[in-house]
Design a protein that fits this description.
The chain contains eleven helices and 18 strands. It is of the alpha/beta class and 472 residues long. Strands 1, 2, 8, 9, 10, 11, 17 and 18 form an eight-stranded mixed beta sheet that branches. Strands 5-6-4-13-14-15-12-16 form an eight-stranded mixed beta sheet, sandwiched between helices. A two-stranded antiparallel ribbon has the order 3-7. The longest helix is centred in the first third of the chain and has 25 residues. The radius of gyration is 21 Å and the shape is globular. The structure holds flavin-adenine dinucleotide. Flavin-adenine dinucleotide (FAD) binds next to helix 3, strand 12 and strand 16.
């Protein structure tokens, strides 16, 4: 079946470019990680969502021992801490976050709560029965998010009225029709929407058709972080913020060192550090930490909203390689993300040059979709790191000589919903209950190889250049 265009082609090209260079310089690839160590640095989250940061916990100030140490206070780490404590109420579970919870992608994203995994979104693999199981699993998890929000009493503004993928080309329309027909025959409730339905729901006349998934939705990401933080703490997990792990000595018992000189001994380690993992020496050859940009307007008036006609408040993304995604907050701000991503040498954080070009691109796209908003400026813009795997497939599992390192990785910009499923799987793996997850492609999946610097940078730049060319 034809597939809509997406980032997979970009990343594969990036790999080919990097891999090609590698052939001539395999020796340098081997020693590169010792020459270019990735900096252990964390930038402050300046997103609109960060204004709802939950009250911060104190940092770790003594040396401790725990049964499980979770590194990273995003959706993966907090949900893993919650589920592990739910299974083992007597185990000491500590979560350690370098800045504040939600400082990474979990508190900076595009707020779309999606079904499936990135590599299988609107595309069937060679095993449609598994695709259907993943759809059911991810659709069910959206309901779990609602229940958790209710149980903690924290309203994370989860709206479950679906999400749209607007189709950018006639090939995408053809592919979406075929996909929907197949998906519905398997019992997936997705729909193909014509232009009239699109205009009725989101107002814009720019697109001819769309793919609608009624099981998806929109959330306030930082309030969802708050839900998981509260759930983990209510279950008895300890969370330390402003506690960065500088290094990990792996063993039957791990020894974690914080940047302030404290230590944590733990029999099990949960690595929930997403795009930052290579900085701790993990997954350097499995993921590419790519910067994505998002911006949000001030609240629109009821009249402005009525004029653009975004009546059903459904979030949407398009099918272009340089994907754009848009949503509406509860107080009527429009946020738009995507466009041209960047990769900085050695996983660098700040761009030396201007980032305003990215926000200008987002504004051009916003006014292309809604010309009536040409006078509306952005109030805030930010960026975040995405952990791209080469074919956009994620992985969750257990590794290490003593099989006591648990991880979830490779969400590839599609993790708001999937992360807490992986948090649950991690907890079940800690409990030795792997059985029910066997057969899912992400369980202990090995991700495709990404070379070290400078080949990683060269490959990514080549891919991005190709990207811009084909998109203009
Ligand atoms: C701009 C952007 C837009 C996105 N839009 C969407 C979307 O609309 N829908 C969707 O489904 N997905 C989206 N995603 C992806 C989604 O946000 C992520 O997949 C998800 O949040 C990953 O959660 P996580 O907990 O694994 O990682 P993170 O949220 O990145 O958490 C990792 C945490 O680990 C901490 N950490 C790292 N190293 C250390 C250390 N050494 N010591 C202590 N702490 C450490 C970091 O500070 C961070 O808080 C987007 C991502 C970005 C960046």
């Amino acid at each position: 079946m034809a597939e809509p265009a997406n980032r997979r082609s970009f990343l594969k090209k990036a790999a080919v470019a990097g891999g090609g260079a590698l052939v001539g310089a395999a020796g340098l690839n081997q020693i590169a990680p010792r020459i270019w160590r990735e900096p252990l640095a964390f930038e402050t989250n300046r997103s609109y969502w960060a204004r709802s940061q939950p009250p911060m916990n104190a940092p770790l100030t003594s040396d401790i021992s725990a049964d499980v140490a979770v590194v990273g206070g995003g959706f993966t780490g907090l949900s893993a801490a919650y589920y592990i404590r739910s299974i083992f109420p007597n185990k000491r579970v500590v979560a350690l976050e370098a800045a504040g919870c939600g400082n990474g992608a979990s508190g900076r994203n595009g707020a779309m709560v999606l079904t499936m995994t990135a590599d299988r979104y609107m595309s069937f693999s060679s095993d449609p029965a598994i695709d259907k199981r993943i759809y059911d699993l991810t659709a069910e998890n959206v309901r779990t998010l609602s229940k958790l929000s209710a149980a903690t009493g924290i309203d994370c503004e989860l709206r479950t009225n679906g999400a749209l993928q607007v189709l950018a080309s006639s090939e995408d329309i053809k592919a979406a029709k075929a996909y929907v027909e197949h998906a519905r025959s398997l019992g997936m409730p997705v729909e193909f929407w014509d232009k009239r339905q699109l205009v009725d729901a989101i107002g814009t006349e720019v697109y001819e058709a769309g793919f609608f998934d009624p099981s998806a939705g929109h959330v306030h990401p930082m309030k969802l972080v708050h839900v998981f933080k509260a759930a983990a703490e209510n279950a008895g997990a300890e969370i330390y913020e402003n506690t960065a792990i500088a290094s990990i000595e792996r063993g039957r018992e791990h020894l974690l060192h914080t940047t302030s000189g404290r230590t944590i001994r733990a029999g099990a380690l949960v690595l929930a550090t997403n795009a930052f993992s290579p900085r701790l020496g993990f997954f350097r050859n499995s993921i590419l930490p790519v910067h994505e940009y998002v911006a949000a307007t001030s609240p629109l008036s009821e009249q402005q909203l009525a004029e653009i006609g975004w009546r059903r408040r459904i979030p949407f993304n398009d099918t272009r390689t340089e994907v754009f995604y848009l949503g509406l907050t509860e107080d009527n701000r429009i946020h738009i993300g995507g466009g041209g991503p960047s990769y900085l040498f050695n996983g660098g954080l700040s761009e030396a040059g201007e980032t305003s070009a990215h926000f200008a691109q987002l504004h051009r796209e916003l006014t292309r979709i809604y010309p009536k908003l040409s006078d509306v400026a952005f109030e805030v813009g930010w960026d975040g790191l995405v952990d791209w795997s080469l074919d956009e497939s994620p992985a969750v599992g257990c590794m290490g000589k003593y099989q006591n390192i648990f991880y979830g990785i490779g969400y590839s910009g599609h993790g708001v919903n999937l992360t807490s499923i992986f948090g649950r799987i991690i907890a079940e793996l800690v409990a030795g209950r792997e059985e029910s997850w066997k057969g899912f492609p992400f369980l202990n999946a090995s991700l495709d190889y990404i070379p070290n610097e400078p080949f990683r940078w060269l490959g990514a730049q080549a891919g991005l250049a190709w990207y811009r060319l084909t998109e203009s």
